[in-house]
Amino acid sequence: MDMPIRLIAIPKVWSPGRYDDNTALIQERKSVPPIDLSWHGVIRRFVILDGIHRSNAARDLGYPSIPARIYPGELKQAARDLGSSPWLSLGRVSEYW
C-alpha cells in the first residue's frame, strides 16, 4: 500500500552515506522500495520500523507517498514480528511528541 509521507514520523538520518545511497537508488530506479511501519497512537502518526533512510530520501526527492507494509497492533509486538528494534526509530521521533 502507498502511505502518504505526511502521515509518517520521519526521524533525521543517522548515516549520511546510507541516505546518499538510497537517494541515488531511488533516482536511478524511479521507485522507492517499501518501508515497514506501525501506528503510534500517542503521536498519531506511523513510526518507521525499517526504512528511515529510504523515507528521508523519498521525501527530499518530492515523493508524496511511499510503498509501505503496515504491521498492526502494539509497536513493541510489531517490531518483534518484523525482527526489528523500534527503539532506534522511537528515540528519533521524540521530537514529534
Automatic annotation (TrEMBL):
Gene3D superfamilies: Conserved hypothetical protein from pyrococcus furiosus pfu- 392566-001, ParB domain (3.90.1530.10). InterPro entries: ParB/Sulfiredoxin_sf. This is Uncharacterized protein.
